[in-house]
Amino acid sequence: MRVDFSEQILLKDVENMIEIIDKLKEISIGTREFIRYSYLYYQIFHSNKPLEDPTDIHL
Hints:
It comes from Funneliformis mosseae (Endomycorrhizal fungus). By secondary structure, the protein is mainly alpha-helical.
């Protein structure tokens, strides 16, 4: 009985951690997009060089 209860608790903890990891991945994607667009805006407003191709993977 105690083993089953322990397994249930561990399973619930693992499920919670998976949800947290998924949320962090979404935040990470959003952060990368923000940095990319911030760099593009910086190029547009603070630089004399022409805007690079927005599909450039290095941005």
